């Protein structure tokens, strides 16, 4: 599976690395697997798409559906943040599309932003160094 995640409980963040070919089935499975765990409710999230070689998405409607499913799973706690690292244009555009759908969903409690570099994403998350347990 090209989606690997680690949890840094001390900083309350899920750190995810995506590699190879990414399919929407894998993205939905990741969303269900990780964000159904009560221990990470309200945690921030960092998704690094730097090593993605290909994104196999059947339609933009699936991005809207993923945003809806994600918003429905959001903790009803104070706002958390999701930083997506996407250096290439295609993945950056997909991230922005996902962010826009999340922003429009009233159930969403997670702010989403997309960055070209890790340093920008870490700064936005308020992290001065790499989260623990990151591979």
Can you tell me about this structure?
This protein has 135 residues and is α/β, with parallel strands linked by helices. It has a single domain (3-124), classed as Transcription Regulator spoIIAA, CATH 3.30.750. The chain is built from 4 helices and 5 strands; from the N terminus they run ββαβαβαβα. It has helices at residues 24-35, 60-73, 89-104, 118-124; strands spanning 3-8, 13-23, 44-56, 80-85, 110-115. It has a 5-stranded mixed sheet.
What is the CATH class? Alpha Beta
- Helix/strand/pairing class, anyone? alpha/beta
Share of β-strand residues: 25-35%
Helical content band:
25-40%
How many β-strand runs?
5
What is the rounded Rg? 14 Å
Number of helices: 4
- What CATH architecture would you give? 2-Layer Sandwich
Overall geometric form = globular
- Enumerate the strands of the largest sheet in spatial order, edge to edge or round the barrel: 1-2-3-4-5
What is the assembly state of the chains in this entry?
single chain
Query: What order do the SSEs take from the amino end to the carboxyl end, as H and E?
Result: EEHEHEHEH
- List segments where confidence is low: pLDDT < 50 over at least 5 consecutive residues: none
Indicate the mean pLDDT: 90
Instruction: Tell me about the largest β-sheet.
Output: 5 strands, mixed
Q: Tell me the number of structural domains.
A: 1
Could you give the distance between the termini?
Answer: 15 Å
The CATH topology is what? Transcription Regulator spoIIAA
Short descriptors:
single chain, 135 residues, alpha/beta, Transcription Regulator spoIIAA, five-stranded mixed sheet
